[in-house]
Amino acid sequence: MKRYLLFLAAVVILFGCKSANKSQKGAAIGAAGGAVIGGLVAKNSVVGALLGAAIGGTAGYFIGKSMDKQAQELKQAVPNAEVNRVGEGINMTFNSGLLFKINSAELSDSAKKDIANVCQVLKKYDDTKILLEGHTDDTGAEAFNMDLSKKRAEAVGSYMEANGVPRTRITEKWYGEEQPKFPNDSEANREKNRRVEIGITADENMKAEAQKGEIKDK
User: Is residue 218 included in any domain, yes or no?
Assistant: First the structure.
């Protein structure tokens, strides 16, 4: 019951305050119990990880403010990717069709350009951690899909490292067909489920600065 009430409180704050900006919404979610809400989201998903990482309060507000700027720069860097602010972090989603050929983990030339552009932003905001997740639809064998999602997440991580993002900042996970965003009942939905998601959260240095109210402009 307590978890449910915390969740409702966050929803009321998030959607009831129309005048609140994204930074304030992120702080509100954290203050209402980001870790608890994260546990209510699908286990191991990027969204759950982002909400679970929220620290809330005044520090969460400062983190959210920095993430607002970073999200805007990511949108400008890669217009064809989906970029959303979630809690005190950022969720960026690439359609795998824009990154890889069918049943392949080899990055296309256009994908390399897009990821290189992402890396320029990530290097500027070097006080963040990066979670990469590979996902597929349910076409094909389950074991094949799991292996393919692994190779695709690793391909993106390796290319980020080659473009100057330290491997220590990157965590790779893969789920094959286990976490569809949409029902696998049409080709349009299957295409959306074939994806690589990026989660961006504050590292310990950013959290420490936020708690002091001293996050520096990038």
Answer: no
14 by Cβ neighbours in 10 Å (0-12 / 13-18 / 19+) ranks as: middle
Q: What is the domain-level CATH number for residue 50?
A: 3.30.1330.60
Domains in the chain: how many in total?
1
DSSP 125: S
Q: What tens digit of pLDDT does each residue of 2-46 get?
A: 343 344 344 434 444 444 444 454 444 444 444 444 444 444 589
Instruction: Quote the pTM value.
Output: 0.80
Residue 114 lies in a domain: yes
Range of the structural domain that residue 101 is part of:
2-212
Which letter does DSSP use for residue 169 in this model? G
CB-count exposure of residue 191 (10 Å: 0-12, 13-18, 19+):
middle
pLDDT tens, position by position, 177-192: 999 988 999 999 998 8
Please tell me the distance from the alpha carbon of residue 166 to that of residue 57, in angstroms, as a whole number.
30
